[in-house]
Design brief:
binds 6-O-phosphono-beta-D-fructofuranose, four-stranded parallel β-sheet, Rossmann fold, alpha/beta, single chain, binds adenosine-5'-diphosphate
């Protein structure tokens, strides 16, 4: 018979994302309901190495489902990138009786989780990142909140941009991925969306388009620019010089990572948290919980990390058809 685990750990790692607290709550509540003990590991892998480990029970996750950020704090940890760091991490799990570990984070955090799994700690990953840049899943915790936060901010910039008849470049997060820019660009009715996956760095085309649209009566020009393209301030200066139109750059920055999680982020994160525990109870390890084709599923970590994510063709078509007219 399979060895039934008794104690699990949970940590959040990499950039925080609204809904991570709901996932922590899902893990803790599903585990305690199944009679498991739960250890919360603070500050991701850094806290694992430094033994920042606390006991958690059902009450320790009260009043957090509606809160942004992560009550366990998060960190990036260089030491854990080394073999010695990973071995120490596995030893720490053993020392604290942690037989199963739930890692809430992005691709980098999953690579770390994979290493721990190879060292004998049962690990399950939950995708938590506002960037939506994890190939095996159509949903990542925090993306929905982030796009709604950014969308509202861009609406506000649009008001003042129209009043002043300006060109506005608004830079949104996403690291190397353009999903936040693409979604907001469509939702905000931007005149242009620049994403690293497709942008050809043809600024003259942008300039020509701005001039043409002005001639056709457009009173403003909103460009949503992804962080992966970047250089919004320099771009604004060049566009202003080339068009003669006042051009401003706004970098939305960390506000996109904070705030009250949306209903979707709370619900999906709760389900993913509980599912991670169910997988551990089934004796599974080296898995990532994902949402694919309308269902909650799980993938092998190595297979998931090898997958490539493409922008859905419909998004590209719509962004071209509806935007540049
Ligand atoms: P994210 O999880 O959001 O992608 P990072 O890429 O910064 O964020 O990764 C978070 C942490 O995961 C890193 O600081 C490091 O501790 C760990 N990590 C990342 N890549 C690896 C790797 N290849 N091997 C082991 N640990 C890793
Ligand atoms: O991965 C989430 C994210 O906010 C990215 O969009 C951004 O590139 C990065 O984290 C910023 O990281 P840091 O918090 O280390 O500045």
């Amino acid at each position: 018979m399979e060895h039934q685990i008794k104690t699990i750990g949970v940590l959040t790692s990499g950039g925080d994302a609204p809904g991570m607290n709901a996932a922590i709550r899902g893990v803790v509540r599903a585990a305690t309901a199944a009679g498991l003990k739960v250890k919360g590991i603070r500050r991701g892998y850094a806290g694992l190495l430094d033994e920042e480990i606390i006991d958690m029970d059902s009450r320790s996750v009260a009043e957090i489902i509606n809160r942004g950020g992560t009550i366990l704090y998060t960190a990036r940890c260089m030491e854990f990138m080394t073999e010695a760091g990973q071995k120490k991490g596995a030893e720490m799990c053993r020392k604290h009786g942690i037989e199963g570990l739930v890692v809430i984070g992005g691709d980098g955090s999953f690579r770390g989780a994979g290493k721990l799994a190879e060292l004998g700690v049962n690990t399950i990953g939950i995708p938590g990142t506002i960037d939506l840049d994890i190939a095996c899943t159509d949903y990542t915790i925090g993306f929905d909140t982030a796009i709604n936060t950014a969308m509202e901010a861009i609406d506000k910039i649009r008001d003042t941009s129209t009043s002043h008849e300006r060109v506005s470049i608004i830079e949104v997060m996403g690291r190397h991925a353009g999903y936040i820019a693409l979604w907001c660009g469509i939702a905000n009715g931007a005149e242009d969306i620049l994403i690293p996956e497709t942008y050809d760095y043809d600024e003259q085309r942008l300039v020509d388009q701005i001039i043409n649209q002005r001639k056709n009566g457009k009173r403003h020009h909103i460009i949503v620019n992804a962080e992966g393209v970047g250089h919004s301030v320099g771009m604004a200066a060049r566009i202003e010089a080339a068009t003669g139109l006042e051009t401003r750059a706004t970098i939305l920055g960390y506000m996109q990572r904070g705030g009250t999680p949306t209903c979707k982020d709370r619900v999906y994160a709760s389900i993913m948290g509980a599912k991670a525990v169910h997988l551990l109870l089934e004796g599974k390890t080296m898995r990532i919980v994902a949402y694919k084709g309308g269902e909650f599923v799980d993938y092998d970590i190595a297979e998931a990390l090898a997958m490539k994510k493409e922008i859905q063709p419909d998004f590209m078509t719509v962004s071209h058809e509806l935007i540049r007219v």
